[in-house]
Fold:
Amino acid sequence: MLEDMNELDAARALIGGLLQDGSIDEPNELRFLAARLDALAARQAATPATPP
Structure:
């Protein structure tokens, strides 16, 4: 949902937290979240920064 709202930093922080805290142990879910994190990073790098 955060990604849909263009809240890329918040989405990355949430997924990163889920991956780091160790509460997810399902390999397929870990791969999915890691792929989403990579996709968010790529999308953020491709999006020009807007001034605050």
